[in-house]
Amino acid sequence: MKADPQAQRRLLDLQAIDIALTQLAHKRKALPEHAELDKLARELSTMEDRRVRAQVAVDDLDRDIDRLERDAEQVRARKQKDQVRLDAGTGPARELEALQHEIGTLNRRQSELEDAELELMEQRETAQAALDEILTALQTRRATREEAERRRDEALVAIAKDEEFRRSGRRPLAADLPVDLVTLYDKIRESSGGIGAAMLRQGRCEGCRLELSGGDRARVKAAAADDVVRCEECRRILVRTAESGL
After folding, report:
1. How many CB atoms lie within 10 A of CB 8?
2. pLDDT tens sequence across 48-64
3. What's phi and psi for 90, nearest 5 deg?
4. How far apart are CA 200 and CA 145, in angstroms?
5. Strand order through the sheet with 237-240
6. Are the C-beta atoms of 182 and 228 separated by less than 8 Å?
7. Residue 52 CB neighbours (<10 A)
8. What contacts 143, CB < 8 A, 6 or more positions away?
9. The predicted structure's pLDDT at residue 167
10. What contacts 17, CB < 8 A, 6 or more positions away?
């Protein structure tokens, strides 16, 4: 293939833009915020599980406290009813004695229920404190996530603007070069790690960083200025300039 020497040298400008675009794509994937957000997502998931368990513990205690309160209210109501009958003093002595015995039993039962309720209320206070602590930590983590998302989005916008700037410069440059030269360059670039053309500097290919052998150097030196020559090692287009050392 042949191409004007100036067009070949402009391949280096095209290559510089493509390298910048590749670096921007890598920068997008490697943003530290991605890793930070992944970590925060795992932490938030774990904390949410803890929140659910803590909320269930509080709800269970509330349910048990309500049950004890209902039971105690029933005991109080029954005791009050028995006390009214006892105070009236009507009926056989044996029945009044039975009422006194039942009131004593109800007093003990009421005391047991109130003690159990008090113990559960203390447990609920502890459980609520644990839940509040988790909720506070969740709020803090969510705020941290929002801040990380904001930084990520700002970085992505900046990268997108930079990419568009580079592409806007690439389009006219590529359009101004011979189609077959650009096609070859793109084909090599896709199969060679993003590098399709490299400068020959002081006898060394800057694509694979290897020095040309004596025979390859002689071959390149003998080639016409408009010949498109390629590195024998990496097969990239070798762009000759005044720094080639030929």
Report:
1. 25
2. 999 999 999 999 999 99
3. -95, 150
4. 48
5. 204-205, 197-201, 237-240, 229-230
6. no
7. 11
8. none
9. 96
10. 166, 169, 170, 173
User: In the chain, helix, strand, coil percent, each to 5?
Assistant: 75, 5, 15
d(CA 244, CA 232): 16
Structural domains in the chain plus CATH codes: 5-25+178-240 (no CATH), 31-175 (1.10.287.1700)
CB 103 within 8 A of CB 79: yes
d(CA 146, CA 144) in angstroms, rounded, equals 5
CA 104 to chain centroid, in Å, comes to: 64
- In single-letter form, the type of residue at position 115 comes to D
Where are the strands (E) in 111-217, listed by range? Answer: 197-201, 204-205
Work out the widest C-alpha separation in the chain, in whole angstroms. 135
CA distances from 51 to 48, 120, 125, 130, 165 (A): 5, 20, 16, 9, 47
pLDDT along the chain (246 residues), means of 10: 94 97 96 97 97 97 96 93 82 80 91 95 97 97 98 98 97 96 96 95 94 92 94 95 88
Q: Report angle CA 221, 226, 229 to the nearest 5 degrees.
A: 55
CA distance 230 to 207: 11
**Torsion angle in degrees (nearest 10) through CA of 61, 65, 71, 75:** 150
Q: CA-to-CA distance for 41 and 145, rounded, in angstroms?
A: 8
User: Would you give the DSSP letter of residue 203?
Assistant: T
pTM for the full predicted model: 0.75
The encoded tokens of residue 118 equal 């008090």
